[in-house]
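Summary: Need help interpreting a holo structure output

Steps to reproduce:
1. Submit the protein chain below together with the SMILES for magnesium ion.
2. Request a joint structure prediction with the ligand placed.
3. Inspect the structure token block that comes back.

Expected: a single structure record containing both the chain and the bound molecule.
Actual: see attached output.

Input attached:
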Amino acid sequence: MKIEIRDLRFTYPTGLEALQGVSLVVEPGEQVAIVGQNGAGKTTLVRHFNGLLQAAAGSVLIGEWDPKKYSVAKLASRVGYVFQNPDEQLFSKDVGTEVKFGPRNLGYAKEKIDELVQRALSLTELSDKTETNPYDLSPTWRKMVALASVIAMDTPIVIFDEPTTGQDALNVARIAHVIAELRREGKTVITITHDIDFCAENFERVIAMSKGRILLDGPAREILGQEHILAQTYVDPPQLTRLGKKLGLKETVRNQVEFLEIYKNHRNK
Ligand SMILES: Nc1ncnc2c1ncn2[C@@H]1O[C@H](COP(=O)(O)OP(=O)(O)O)[C@@H](O)[C@H]1O
Ligand SMILES: [Mg+2]
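--- attached output ---
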């Protein structure tokens, strides 16, 4: 499902102009990372996709839908949004009920609900924790419950807001696995992240935001090489990208696999 944003502007009641004309098209099935300093407007932007915020000017289209004309409940059938802080999202007394809530609310048949819930629980490795109260779990696992409850809704578009913040390496790998699985299923995935290595390892397209605008938007390889522009939004390219540049590699490398490949050729020249 296509997302089309044209010259979107949004001002908070405090008078702060958090989005100052953002235009963006995300094609169905694309996987996009949004990076940028704190306060750049990343969360404000994605909250327009599911109707949590409404455009002050400009337009938003989710498929053919203008979110202004649909309720948040209705938009939930198209856009799943995993909050940065799971505590803002979770409210059920046990994991099973929490994960079932979304698909049940969308009115799916019982068999479909069961299937979606099983799949979401297994992808997030929560199948043995369905009886547990989310608040008895570590913050790491609460994050996985938040992921599961959104994945279970089977929306064509899934948004993760800072999924790896505060997560250990094992859980970051689990989250990467979930995103890879959604990619395989042809879902559109938009991920806000501070973790530039995670971005480089998992996303083909990167959008860098600064002060309510899009600074850069393009293939990860191109964007992550633009050290000086990224610096404007306090984003450093990945360690390996910087090392590659220092070594004089001609191509921008994003991750270990690319680094080793290109470095080998470079050395053999
Ligand atoms: N509820 C709010 N009320 C007023 N200002 C807000 C609110 N939420 C965010 N802001 C401000 O809007 C700007 C963009 O915030 P946000 O979209 O959360 O940025 P990011 O997700 O990139 O860190 C920041 O200056 C932030 O302080
Ligand atoms: Mg944010």
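--- end attachment ---

Reviewer comment: The chain has two domains: 3-242, 243-269. The two ends are 45 Å apart (CA to CA).
Status: needs-info
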